[in-house]
Design a protein that fits this description.
heterodimer; A: alpha/beta; Rossmann fold; 13 helices; B: mainly alpha; 3 domains; 19 helices; about 0% strand
Chain lengths: ~375, ~475
C-alpha cells in the first residue's frame, strides 16, 4: 500500500542528505580539477585559462591549478621521443594579450620548426597575465611534471617588488602550493601573509566552495566554444595604444635610488632555479617599450622610471654572473611601434622578432 | 525573473498559503501582483519610464475591464474599493521616492507624485466619460481592441518603438542623442496584450464571464505568469480564483517538486547551455560544420529548458496559491510531426492564435461564395498564423522568416500527410515499422524546428543564411 508523502519528512531528509554531501566534500576534497573534457573531447587550450569577460572570450579566470593545467594542451600531449620540450613562463606578454595563440612567443617558435640536438622544438605557452615572480615559480613547480627540456622564464622589473609577490589572486588562492614551495625550495614568504586566502572548513564544503565548482564546470562548457571558434580572448578592433607621454614622475613602488637586491624578490628568482633543478633555464629580461615622448628622459615607459630600471638591469647582470644563470637581456630589441596596449605587450611582428632573438639560445642550451 | 525574484515570490506564496490559507488569499494575489509588476520592471533610460510602464499596464487593464464588464458588475461598490486599494498601493510605491531604504520595489527612484495623481485623474475622468456613453459600448470594444493591437505594434515594430522612445524622451526633457528602439521595454506587455485581446474578443462574442475589477486585474497581471506566461483563459482562471481551498497539503508537494524542476531546468541546464548556444556573435566565429551543429543544438535545448523551466516555476508558484495554470509544454521535441510539435510547444499561445485568428479566418474563407481550394486555404491560414506568431516575438525580418518557415512546414506536412497517410498505414504493419516511422518523424521534426531556430536566434537574415549553409557543409 502506498504511504502518503509527508512533505516535511521529505524536506528534512533532503536537507540532511545535502548537509552530508557538503561534509563529505569538505572532508574528502576531491581533486576534480584533474578531470577534464579538454584533450579528450576538445583540443587542449594553447594557453592557461584566463578571462575577464567569459561570454565574449570563451575563457575565464580560475584558481584551481589542476583544472587550469588539465585544460592546457601540454596535459594531453605525451612527450614524443623526438620532441625537445620548451616551456615558457611569464606574464601577460608571454600569455599573449591581444595576440592569437599562434602569434605569441610560443606560437612563433613552433612556427619556426626549430630543431635542437636533433629533436623538434615544441614550445608551450604557460604564461599567465599577472606580474609576480612567485606566481611564475608556482606555475613552474606545477609544470615540472611535464618533463621540459628547457625552461624560458620571461620577466621584467615589475615582477620583482616584494609587495607584488603575494597580491596576485592566483597565488593568494593557492596557499597550499605556496607553502610547499616554502617547505621544499626555501621560498621566503611570511607565514601569516595577509594576502593568503586561508580556507576554513566551511569554505571547503560544496556550498562554501561553490564559486570554484561553478568555475570548473564553466571551464569545461567553454571548451565547446574554444573548439568551435579557436577564440580564447576578446580581440577588440581598436584599443588605446601604450602611453608614451608621461608626467615628470620618478617614483617607483615607494622605492628610492639606488635600487638594491634587498628590495626585490631575488629569493623567488633563486627558488625558481631550485625548482627546475637540472633542467636548463633561460632567464630573459623581456622587451619593453622605450618611449621618446614627453619626459622620456625621466621614464622609459608607464611602468618604469629610468633610474629604477637601469639599477634593475645592473643587479640582474651581476646576479646571473655570480650564480651562473643563463641570462638574456632583450629589453631594447623591439621598436616602440611594435607594442600594443602596454609597454610590455608586443605585436605579432614584435613577438616574431623576440622569437628570432631567442632561437639561438634555445639551440645552444639543449642537452 | 532572476533566481532571487523567484525564490522571494515562492517563499512569499508558500508563507501566505501556510499561515493564512484561504484568508485574504485573493487580496494577496491582487496586491502582490500589483507590486510585482513594478518590482520586476527593469530600469529604463527614459526618466520615470520604469515606473510609468507598470502604471500604464494597470490603467490599460482597468479601462479594458470597464469596457468589457456588464453594467451590473461595473456598478458594484466593491470595484470602487478595489480600485482605491490598487491606487493606494501604487501611490505607496510612488512615495518610496522619499524613503531610499524602500526603493527596492522599483528599478529607479520613483518620479514626482503629481504625475501619477494626474494619470489617476485622467483615468478616472475617462471611466466617468465611458460610463455616461453606454450606448456606444460596442464601439468601445472595437476601439479597445484597436488600441491594444496598436500599442502592441508600437512596442514590437522597431521603427515605431524608436518613434515612441523619441517621443517619451522629448516628453521627459531628455536628449535624443542616444535614443534607441530598445529604450522602452515594457515588461510583460506581450502577455498582457494577449490576455486583453482575449477578453475583448470574448466579450464581443458574448462569452465574457462576470468578474469584478480585482479579479480582472489579478487575471491579467497574475504575478507567477506575468513575464513568461502561460496565457490562461479568464473563465478558467476565475474558477480557481474563486474556489475555496480545502486541501493545501496535497498541492504543496507537487508544487515544490515542480518548482525545483523548473529551477533546475532554467538555472542549471538552460543557463549552462546559454554559454554555448547560437547567438549573433558566435554565429560568425564558428569554423566547422560539426561545431555549428553543436551550438545550434545547444540553442534548441536552451530555449526549451529556459522557457519550459519558467513555465514550471510559474505553475508551481500559482499552485501554492491554489491556481492551476494551464500547461505550456508537453515534450514538444518528441513529437513525430510539425503539427504535433505546435500542439505541444507554447501551447497556450498556439491555442490563443487558433481561437482568435486561425479558426475565425478559416471560417471566413469558407464562407466565401466561391471558396478557394482547400490546399490554398490551408496554405494561407497556416502561413498567416505562423507569421503572426513570429510577429508576436518581434516585427523583424528574422521573425518573419521564422514564421514563414513554420507556416510552410505546417502546410507541407499537411499535404504530405494527406497524400501518404494511407500508404504509411499500409506499410507500417509491424511494431518495428511503426517505431521506425515514429523515430524518423521525431528526428525530422526536431531538425526542422532546430534549423528554424537559426532565424529565431539571430537578428540578421544574411547571418542566418550563412549559418544554415555552414550547417550543410558550405
Amino acid at each position: 500500500m502506498n504511504q502518503p508523502i509527508k512533505p516535511l519528512n521529505v524536506l528534512i531528509k533532503g536537507l540532511l542528505l545535502f548537509a552530508l554531501f557538503n561534509l563529505v566534500i569538505a572532508a574528502w576534497q576531491p581533486g576534480v580539477g584533474q578531470l577534464s573534457l579538454y584533450n579528450v573531447l576538445y583540443p587542449g587550450r594553447e594557453r592557461l585559462p584566463f578571462g575577464e569577460s567569459p561570454k565574449q572570450s570563451y575563457n575565464l579566470s580560475l584558481f584551481d591549478l589542476d583544472a587550469m593545467f588539465a585544460s592546457h594542451v601540454i596535459s594531453g600531449t605525451p612527450k614524443a621521443e623526438d620532441e625537445f620540450r620548451v616551456i615558457i613562463v611569464g606574464d601577460s606578454s608571454v600569455w599573449g594579450t591581444l595576440l592569437k595563440p599562434e602569434e605569441t612567443l610560443a606560437g612563433q617558435l613552433n612556427a619556426d620548426n626549430l630543431t635542437a640536438c636533433g629533436k623538434n622544438v615544441r614550445a608551450y605557452n604557460l604564461g599567465y597575465p599577472t606580474i609576480s615572480l612567485t606566481k611564475d615559480v608556482m606555475l613552474l613547480s606545477y609544470a615540472k611534471q611535464y618533463d621540459p627540456d628547457l625552461v624560458i622564464w620571461m620577466t621584467t622589473l615589475d615582477a620583482f617588488p616584494l609587495e607584488k609577490q603575494m597580491s596576485t589572486p592566483l597565488v593568494a588562492n593557492n596557499e597550499e602550493k605556496v607553502r610547499e614551495l616554502v617547505t621544499n625550495y626555501g621560498l621566503r614568504v611570511e607565514a601569516d601573509d595577509s594576502n593568503f586566502e586561508v580556507k576554513s572548513f566551511w569554505d571547503k564544503t560544496f556550498i562554501g566552495n561553490r564559486r570554484a565548482w561553478a568555475d570548473f564546470f564553466r571551464l569545461q562548457i567553454y571548451g565547446v566554444m574554444w573548439s568551435a571558434t579557436g577564440i580564447d580572448q576578446v580581440y577588440p578592433s581598436d584599443y588605446e595604444k601604450a602611453q608614451t607621454d608621461f608626467e615628470a614622475d620618478e617614483s617607483y613602488h615607494d622605492l628610492t635610488a639606488p635600487l638594491t637586491e634587498d628590495e626585490l624578490a631575488i629569493n623567488a628568482l633563486e627558488t625558481g632555479f631550485r625548482v627546475v633543478g637540472e633542467t636548463p633555464m633561460l632567464l630573459v629580461n623581456e622587451p619593453m617599450l622605450i618611449s621618446s615622448g614627453a619626459n622620456s628622459d625621466i621614464r622609459y615607459n608607464f611602468f618604469y622610471p629610468r633610474w629604477a630600471y637601469d639599477d634593475y638591469r645592473e643587479i640582474m647582470t651581476a646576479l646571473s654572473e655570480r650564480d651562473g644563470w643563463t641570462y638574456v637581456d632583450l629589453w631594447d630589441i623591439a621598436p616602440a611601434n611594435e607594442f600594443t596596449n602596454s609597454a610590455i605587450h608586443l605585436t605579432p611582428a614584435g613577438e616574431n622578432l623576440l622569437a628570432e632573438n631567442l632561437a639561438p639560445y634555445i639551440l645552444e642550451n639543449c642537452k | 525573473m532572476a533566481l532571487e525574484n523567484i525564490l522571494i515570490l515562492a517563499a512569499a506564496s508558500l508563507l501566505w498559503a501556510t499561515i493564512f490559507r484561504n484568508y485574504g488569499r485573493t487580496w494577496f494575489m491582487l496586491i502582490a501582483s500589483v507590486i510585482v509588476i513594478f518590482w520586476l520592471q527593469p530600469a529604463l533610460p527614459i526618466r520615470g519610464a520604469d515606473f510609468f510602464a507598470p502604471v500604464a499596464t494597470l490603467v490599460l487593464v482597468v479601462l479594458t475591464w470597464f469596457i468589457t464588464a456588464d453594467d451590473e458588475t461595473r456598478k458594484q461598490r466593491k470595484n470602487g474599493i478595489i480600485l482605491a486599494i490598487v491606487a493606494g498601493v501604487v501611490l505607496l510605491l510612488n512615495l518610496t521616492r522619499f524613503i531610499p531604504q524602500l526603493q527596492f520595489f522599483t528599478a529607479s527612484r520613483p518620479p514626482q507624485l503629481e504625475t501619477t495623481l494626474l494619470i489617476f485623474l485622467i483615468t478616472g475622468l475617462t471611466l466617468l466619460a465611458l460610463s455616461r456613453l453606454t450606448r456606444f459600448s460596442a464601439s468601445f470594444l472595437t476601439v479597445g481592441l484597436v488600441l491594444t493591437i496598436g500599442l502592441f505594434l508600437l512596442i514590437k515594430i522597431p521603427a515605431l518603438s524608436l518613434w515612441l522612445a523619441s517621443f517619451l524622451r522629448t516628453l521627459s526633457g531628455q536628449s535624443l542623442t542616444n535614443v534607441s528602439a530598445n529604450d522602452f521595454r515594457w515588461l510583460g506587455f506581450s502577455y498582457v496584450a494577449f490576455r486583453l485581446i482575449h477578453t475583448i474578443r470574448d466579450k464581443q462574442s458574448g462569452r465574457f464571464p462576470s468578474v469584478d475589477v480585482g479579479e480582472f486585474i489579478t487575471y491579467v497581471i497574475f504575478f507567477p505568469a506575468f513575464t513568461a506566461g502561460p496565457i490562461d483563459r479568464l473563465e478558467r482562471f476565475i474558477k480557481d480564483f474563486r474556489a475555496s481551498r480545502s486541501d493545501f497539503q496535497s498541492d504543496l508537494f507537487p508544487a515544490g517538486q515542480r518548482l525545483l524542476l523548473g529551477l533546475f531546468k532554467k538555472f542549471v541546464i538552460a543557463d549552462a547551455l546559454a554559454l554555448i548556444a547560437l547567438n549573433d556573435t558566435n554565429a560568425t566565429q564558428v569554423t566547422s560544420t560539426v561545431w555549428m551543429w553543436v551550438i545550434v543544438y545547444a540553442y534548441a535545448f536552451q530555449i526549451y529548458f529556459d522557457f519550459s523551466g519558467y513555465t514550471d516555476i510559474a505553475l508551481s508558484i500559482a499552485q501554492l496559491l491554489g491556481i492551476k495554470l494551464p500547461e505550456n509544454f508537453a515534450s514538444p521535441y518528441l513529437k513525430p510531426n510539425l503539427t504535433q510539435f505546435w500542439n505541444n510547444w507554447h501551447m497556450t499561445l498556439t491555442q490563443w492564435f487558433r481561437a482568435y485568428f486561425f479558426n475565425p479566418i478559416t471560417r471566413w474563407l469558407r464562407s466565401w461564395q466561391k471558396p478557394m481550394s482547400i490546399p490554398m486555404m490551408i496554405l494561407l491560414t497556416q502561413v498567416a498564423t505562423m507569421l503572426l506568431i513570429g510577429f508576436w516575438h518581434g516585427v523583424t525580418w528574422n521573425f518573419t522568416l521564422w514564421g514563414l518557415w513554420h507556416g510552410l512546414g505546417l502546410f507541407i506536412h499537411n499535404r504530405w500527410n494527406d497524400a501518404t497517410k494511407a500508404k504509411a498505414a499500409a506499410w507500417a504493419t509491424t511494431p518495428t515499422k511503426q517505431a521506425f516511422l515514429n523515430v524518423s518523424g521525431i528526428l525530422l521534426t526536431f531538425h526542422f524546428v532546430t534549423i528554424g531556430w537559426v532565424f529565431f536566434a539571430l537578428s540578421s537574415p544574411l547571418t542566418s543564411w550563412q549559418v544554415i549553409l555552414k550547417l550543410f557543409g558550405a
